[in-house]
Each structure stands twice: as structure tokens, then as C-alpha cells.
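Hey, quick one: can you model this chain's 3D structure?
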Amino acid sequence: MSTPAAELGCHQARQCFSALQDKALSKDHQLRLEAHLECCPACRAEYSRLEAAWAALGELPAPSAPSALAGQVLKRIEAGPRWLNVLRPLPRLAPSVAALGAMLLLGLVAGGFLGHAVLPGQEALAESTSTLQALDVFTPAPQGTLAHGYLQLAALEGK
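Sure thing. Here's the predicted structure for all 159 residues.
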């Protein structure tokens, strides 16, 4: 049976020094590390140096920020990102954008009504003519394609 000190090598033990100081090790691991420290003078000396450094760090005064720092931080937060400055004038432009949108919508609606208002009795002719004009994009359609077949059907229907 191996001793607890032999279970933990020096390299593994030194990696756990900070966790031991912070009391973040499991009870079992802590016992194995403490057993290693009792048996290994090199690790014990290293851990003692680290404890002295931690104690010295604990005695340092807490850093203080300049009194104007809080105001500077708040100013920067209120200013926001620089790219946001581009968007700041948009609320003033909102009424003109809304008016432009309303005029565009009115134009689309009026165009839709005027585009369908053809001479009486020619609604069917206007619809088939616009369909055939739209299919002019496909001419000349290659033999055997869907467009060629549709053009042949459209030509037979008109006869």
C-alpha cells in the first residue's frame, strides 16, 4: 500500500497550492496534499514562500480611483458608441419619412387601380396580352423546355 505522500507528486502538489490557500480542495485531496507537504521539504519550502507572498499582498492598501473617474465613466456611458451618433438625428426626420411612406403607399394604390382600369369589355384581353408580353422574355424558348411547352399551349388557346 502506498503512502499518501507517494500518491501525489511534487508537480501535482505545486499545482494545488493556490487551491489549498483558497480552501477549494476536497477534504481527501487536502489531506493528501498536506501529507505530501509533511514529507517533502522542497514543496514545504515553496508553499511557505507562497504563504508569505499571500500575506504580504493582504497587507497592501486597497487601490483607490481618482475622484473624477466616476464622472468620466458616466459621460462615456451616456455618450454611447460613436456609431450611434449617426442614428441620433433620425427622430427629427421621422415625420418626413412617414410622409414619404404615405405618398409611396398612395402611389402604389392609385397605380394599382389605374393599371386595372382598362376599357370596358377588354379586361380578359388585357390580362392575356400582359401574360403573353411577360412570356416574351422566354422567346426564343429552346425546344423541349417548360417555357416552350407553355408558349405552345398559349398559342393554341388563342386560336
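One thing worth noting: The chain has a mean pLDDT of 78.
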